[in-house]
Amino acid sequence: MIKKITKFGVIGATLMMLSGCLGMPKDVQPISGFELNRYLGEWYEIARLDHSFERGLSQVSATYSVNDDGSVKVINKGFSAEDNEWSEALGKAKFVNQPDEGYLKVSFFGPFYGSYVIFELDKENYEYAFVSGPDLDYLWLLSRTKDVDQEVIERFVSTAQSLGFKTNELIFVEQ
């Protein structure tokens, strides 16, 4: 059974409304040459900084597809062992600037958007992505597979640390 708009939805939406930022951390730059059609599909969350809207969730994934209006449909899903149920949130994303730049805004509730900044991407195969939110409190490593090479994890941690993220607080997600 999937419980909709639980940890992801209400708390995440509230956090996004309060932060309401479409900026990005000072030294983070979105990738160029982004191809949305190659990014669509399922991604697994490998690592993240902790937030109440994801706290305690394992088996976290995000699935992206295109809506009829051209925006991006976002489905975030994770399992809460404490509640013994799945949590799911439905959102939408739009490009902030041009569609070949990895800089989008995402909303899970109403007209309020938060930044989704892809600052590193395996452009050859679109196998992993480093993603930031509006500030240094939001950071994710996403992958097409549930496991990634240690080299990718080390590069993610090193890159994120050099940009000022608190990598010592990273949570590595049980998939």
UniProtKB/TrEMBL annotation:
CDD domains: lipocalin_Blc-like. Residues 35-175 form the Lipocalin/cytosolic fatty-acid binding domain. It comes from the Bacteria. One of its GO terms (molecular function) is lipid binding. The keyword Heme does not apply. Its main location: membrane. One of its GO terms (biological process) is response to stress. Homodimer. This is Outer membrane lipoprotein Blc. It comes from Aliivibrio sifiae.
